[in-house]
Amino acid sequence: APPILHVENLRTQFPTETGLVKAVDGASFSVSRGKTVCVVGESGCGKSVTGRSILQIVDRPGQVVGGRILWRPNDAHEPTDLAALDPRGDEIRRIRGNEIAMVFQEPMTSLSPVHTIGSQIVEAIRLHTDLDADAARARTIEVLEHVGLPRPADRFGAYTFQLSGGMRQRAMIAMALACDPRLLIADEPTTALDVTTQAQILRLLARLQAEMEMSVLFVTHDMGVVAQIADEVVVMYLGTVVETGPTEQIFAEPRHPYTRALLDAIPRVGQRRRGRRLATIRGSVPGPHSRPTGCPFHPRCDYARPGTCDTREPATVALGARRHVRCVLAEEEVAVG
Ligand code: SF4
Ligand code: MG
């Protein structure tokens, strides 16, 4: 399938009192039409900022400072470079919520506590379409039903505080899908939920994606979630993409030491307790002002070579059409041929 989104050398930075934080530092990947791509890594690796950069909703004073975010690069018209758009301009507003929608870990990021679920969705629909009030209301009930809210006509007048966590998450997804987006960006939408509800929401997203022929960019720290929903995987570490590839290949034959560490840290059934998931990766993600020299993973890497990995940033090498790895081990493999 052709790409619907192509991100190239994306850089997003936050000026702070103690220096510039390079939250995304040269990330490249693409999302194919109708596929689910998972961006995975520990927290602090730039996954959420990458998702937010695509929609130009990075928290200020952070901003996209470089690279390209090509939206629908293969369509007949000129592709739009989202990275070049004014975050407050009309063009990105037209795309946001309409062509590309986003859902978050915390439903109250997008839902208001003081308006009914139904009225908020109606408003979102009327902002982006020509539907009149009655048609927007009918469409709202349709999407509430579509996301599995029982008695959708009754839920129309409900407030968020009247819904359970899982139902709130469904309502937020309904709002995101109301305008039939081509791409859904989902940032840890199941992380705050219990295991059963998490599984239900993941199944819901998979069903909606297939029915709506939508592409999904799913941000998560959890390789267990990746295994359930991803077609392709983008592994991020400290603002860079360290490995990409089809899910089966990533799981069967991880090539980057960080990917291996993430996979080794997947808890076995019965051990899925929060806060323990990444327990086996040695050390922790360095703070924003202590970025290591050379390969950013070298202080934690079991394969690190002194004199090489701590001084030189590895290049990203292609090990196949959709397989990329950024590590000296892969560089050498390609050089040997
Ligand atoms: Fe480890 Fe070196 Fe590869 Fe970095 S470049 S992941 S330190 S082996
Ligand atoms: Mg995050």
TrEMBL record:
Membrane topology reported for the UniProt record: Peripheral membrane protein
GO cellular component: plasma membrane
Domain of life: Bacteria
An MF annotation (GO) of this entry: ATP binding
Protein name as it appears in the record: ABC transporter ATP-binding protein
CDD domains according to UniProt: ABC_NikE_OppD_transporters
PROSITE patterns hit by this protein: ABC_TRANSPORTER_1, ABC_TRANSPORTER_2
Pfam families: ABC_tran, oligo_HPY
Domain (ABC transporter) ranges: 5-263
Assigned keywords, A-Z: ATP-binding, Cell inner membrane, Cell membrane, Membrane, Nucleotide-binding, Translocase, Transport
Record-linked InterPro entries: AAA+_ATPase, ABC_Ni/Peptide_Import, ABC_transporter-like_ATP-bd, ABC_transporter-like_CS, Oligopep_ABC_C, P-loop_NTPase
Cell location: Cell membrane
Any coiled-coil regions, as ranges: none
Gene Ontology biological process terms from the UniProt entry: peptide transport
Family: Belongs to the ABC transporter superfamily.
Organism, scientific name: Phytoactinopolyspora halotolerans
